[in-house]
Design goal:
The chain is built from 3 helices and 7 strands; from the N terminus they run E-H-E-E-E-H-E-H-E-E. By secondary structure, the chain is an alpha/beta fold. The chain has a domain at 26-96: Nucleotidyltransferase, domain 5 (2-Layer Sandwich). Strand 3 (39-41) and strand 4 form a beta hairpin. It is globular, with a radius of gyration of 15 Å. Mean pLDDT is 78; it is low at 1-16.
Length: 105
């Protein structure tokens, strides 16, 4: 950690071609989905109502946050992942491109 506990987020392209296509990520929300169908918003378990509420709140931010989706394990129901992606897109929110890697220190 630097600067008394502040987090620094850096986007590193996976290759030089991707560098031109990686946007600046002002805020990144990490969504995890486990095999039991549980959702986690930045590490905190949330139910579907809380998830919808957080998405609404995120859609009012300026600049809009970016979302990273992490299915945890191989048994995650793809229908649930698709539903989460659809909900994010329905709010006009952005999903982080898969060709960019984010490192948080």
């Amino acid at each position: 950690m630097f600067g008394g506990g502040r987090q620094i987020r850096l986007a590193f392209p996976l290759d030089s071609e991707a560098a031109e296509n990686c946007p600046h990520f002002p805020e990144i929300v990490h969504i995890e989905i486990d095999a039991r169908g549980m959702l986690y918003w930045n590490g905190a378990a949330v139910d579907s109502a809380r998830f919808a509420s957080y998405l609404l709140e995120a859609s009012k931010k300026n600049p809009l946050p970016w979302f990273e989706i992490y299915p945890v394990g191989k048994q995650v129901d793809i229908r649930l992942v698709n539903s989460i992606l659809e909900q994010i897109r329905d709010r006009q929110l952005r999903i982080m491109p898969s060709n960019c890697k984010v490192v948080v220190e």
